[in-house]
Design a protein that fits this description.
The chain has about 220 residues and is an alpha+beta fold. The protein has six helices and five strands. The strands form two sheets. The chain has a three-stranded antiparallel beta sheet. Strands 4-5 form a two-stranded antiparallel sheet.
């Protein structure tokens, strides 16, 4: 079965998805996930009350919220009726597609010929502190992850790194957790990046199981 590429080829490794997002997007997403709906509503109500105290004409204090809500509602209606382009569909591949990893020479093989394997790394953490992501000790973890992600978006990015995405959620008690899902060409590339000082003979217990060294 032959395959037709849906994306253009790149002379060099393209930037990961998280690196193409606006710089303020990560902070806004973090705040949105970290705080509950009731906390956000209480913060908005407090700001609205403060604005009402500062403005002489109390009716003007409600204009920002009303205008913003009206603008967002009209924007959603225009997108729904195809009057305005849908920004949520940008870079979305419609229809059926599959992910095929080129070989080390960049050749894209058919499904029947494709023998390239992919290593998936799940790197997650959970914070049970009431401050969530902004807990003092947990911020150290975020700083380390930010430095790691920045190193993936440089010309000296690790060999074999194919891409990465992340997920954030809350459990039933409100504790926040996140997961970084990264893809690598081989387990050797992954281990060589995470444990560069680990001897090759100590990396495996058997060909199917990776055993990291204790630190």
């Amino acid at each position: 079965m032959s395959l037709n590429p849906l994306l253009p080829t790149h002379p060099s490794r393209p930037s990961p998805q998280f690196a193409r997002a606006p710089k303020h997007f990560a902070l806004l997403e973090l705040i949105h996930t970290n705080f509950s709906l009731t906390t956000s509503l209480l913060a908005g109500a407090s700001l609205q009350s403060l604005l009402a105290l500062l403005v002489k004409n109390k009716y003007y204090a409600f204009l920002p919220a009303i205008l913003l809500l009206t603008a967002r509602s009209l924007n959603a209606i225009l997108i729904h009726f195809n009057i305005k382009p849908n920004p949520y569909l940008e870079e979305v591949l419609l229809g059926k597609s599959t992910a095929v990893i080129p070989d080390t020479k960049g050749k894209l093989r058919t499904l029947a010929e494709g023998q390239e394997k992919v290593t998936v790394c799940l790197l997650g953490a959970k914070c049970n502190h009431p401050f969530g992501f902004f807990a003092p000790e947990f911020m150290k973890t975020f700083k380390w992850l930010a430095e790691m992600n920045a190193s993936f978006d440089t010309p000296d990015a690790p060999n074999g790194f194919l891409g990465q995405t992340n997920w954030q959620r809350k459990d039933e008690r409100g504790a926040v957790e996140f997961l970084f899902l990264s893809y690598w060409r081989s387990i050797d590339d992954l281990v060589g990046t995470l444990f560069p000082s680990l001897p090759a003979k100590c990396r495996y217990q058997d060909p199917r199981q990776f055993v990291p060294a204790a630190h």
